[in-house]
């Protein structure tokens, strides 16, 4: 009897110790902490259909100009741009009126105005798209007025307007606002826990965000997930896969359903292309263009909460989407981002990568300190390029698969430069590191 009691006591002690150890790991695991932060990464169990269009098509940068300097701000615990959008849904926004166009000097003053917050889209959208995203009836009929910046003055009570600005043609629109208060937005600005000093420069190819000082950003690691080809064929061929003809050549698999639909899956690069030759109707306006693109995105991927519209080319009828972390785009090895969709009279094409971020994992990587943008420009010039050659410049995250675990990727911040239509890491253009030494 004593021996049995002793065994029970020993087992109880072991159970208590195990519980304490497990609790320690749960509460100190960085993955647990990061999943609670707003880093634009979906929960593996989240429902993609619950991700609204105004989250996928939303501003990715928020800039605050105080009395002295301009800052790129972000809150890891609350997405500032999505919160401001929610606040704006209660505003009565009138029809935008053109203030000026093609005046670079005036445009520079507008985007550098003090006491102003800016929400910046990676690509231009129209005022009626904004009306749809905000559920604002007065904007829904405003087709054709394009912009990629929303500017709100938080101090001047006499200025009862918001401003819509377009980096492409320097157009500025003014829209009267009623039932609005700057106080909730000011509170969001004060909560920002990422604050990087910037300067907006107008260069040959548009407005560039320059970081005036070296910046420090955290690196991340994530488990990635992908689907088998059969899951895509079931979804993309409307579950009618009995008539599929399959061929393979050096790891490239082709699935054809007559002459109407085709899926090509390159197992060497994890890139897929789906062509639907029956989808020959071209969107007649930009709202329909973005709505159809959004619908195709949610049909393609299970995890889309960190996906954002990156580029909308209305002339060519194609859309590009990228994944974002902490408000910065992720650049994969593909040239097109995460998903590229094109509409034409010959059919629609969807080009996408079969790897999406699932959940963060603990990372012992220390923050990366990057050079100021001015030093990056000097490096580009030293490599033989002119500043006029630079078509785009962004700080983004580089996608690197771990050598010993292909299911885990490391996301490391660096500068990305677009030259001759191609985005490449600064290191690839110059053979120099973007990190501060």
TrEMBL record:
Transmembrane segments: 6-27
Regulatory protein YycH domain mapped to chain residues: 10-427
The organism of origin for this protein: Companilactobacillus pabuli
The protein, known as: Regulatory protein YycH domain-containing protein
CDD domains tied to this protein: YycH_N
One Pfam family in the UniProt entry: YycH
Alphabetical UniProt keywords: Membrane, Transmembrane, Transmembrane helix
Annotated InterPro entries: YycH
Highest taxon of source: Bacteria
């Amino acid at each position: 009897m004593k021996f049995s009691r002793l065994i029970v006591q020993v087992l109880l002690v072991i159970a208590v110790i195990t519980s304490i150890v497990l609790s320690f790991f749960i509460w100190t695991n960085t993955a647990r902490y990061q999943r609670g932060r707003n880093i634009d990464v979906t929960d593996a169990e989240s429902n993609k259909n619950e991700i609204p269009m105004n989250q996928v098509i939303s501003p990715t940068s928020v800039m605050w100009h105080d009395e002295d300097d301009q800052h790129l701000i972000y809150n890891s615990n609350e997405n500032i741009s999505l919160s401001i959008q929610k606040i704006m849904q209660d505003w009565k926004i009138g029809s935008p009126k053109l203030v000026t166009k093609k005046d670079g000097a005036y445009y520079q003053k507008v985007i550098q105005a003090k006491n102003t917050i800016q929400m910046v889209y990676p690509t231009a959208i129209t005022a009626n798209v904004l009306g749809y995203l905000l559920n604002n009836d007065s904007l829904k009929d405003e087709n054709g007025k394009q912009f990629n910046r929303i500017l709100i003055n938080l101090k001047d009570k006499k200025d009862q307007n918001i401003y819509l600005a377009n980096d492409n043609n320097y157009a500025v629109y003014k829209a009267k606002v009623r039932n609005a208060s700057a106080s909730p937005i000011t509170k969001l600005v004060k909560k920002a826990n990422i604050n990087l000093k910037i300067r907006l420069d107008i260069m040959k190819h548009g407005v560039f965000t320059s970081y005036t000082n070296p910046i420090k950003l955290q690196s991340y690691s994530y488990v990635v997930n992908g689907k088998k080809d059969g899951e895509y064929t079931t979804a993309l061929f409307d579950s009618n896969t009995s008539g599929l003809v399959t061929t393979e050549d050096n790891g490239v698999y082709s699935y054809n359903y007559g002459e109407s639909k085709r899926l090509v899956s390159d197992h060497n690069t994890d890139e897929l292309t789906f062509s639907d030759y029956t989808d020959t109707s071209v969107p007649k306006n930009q709202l329909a263009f973005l709505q159809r693109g959004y619908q195709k995105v949610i049909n393609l991927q299970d995890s889309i909460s960190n996906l954002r519209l990156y580029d909308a080319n209305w002339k060519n009828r194609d859309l590009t989407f990228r994944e974002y972390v902490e408000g910065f785009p992720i650049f994969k090895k593909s040239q097109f981002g995460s998903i590229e969709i094109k509409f034409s009279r010959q059919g629609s094409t969807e080009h996408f990568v079969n790897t999406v971020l699932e959940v963060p994992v603990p990372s012992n990587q220390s923050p990366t300190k990057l050079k100021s943008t001015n030093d990056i420009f000097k490096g580009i010039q030293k490599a033989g390029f002119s500043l006029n050659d630079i078509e785009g410049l962004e700080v983004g995250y580089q996608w690197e698969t771990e050598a010993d675990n292909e299911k885990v990727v490391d996301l490391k911040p660096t500068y990305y430069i677009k030259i001759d239509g191609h985005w490449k890491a600064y290191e690839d253009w110059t053979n120099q590191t973007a990190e501060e030494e």
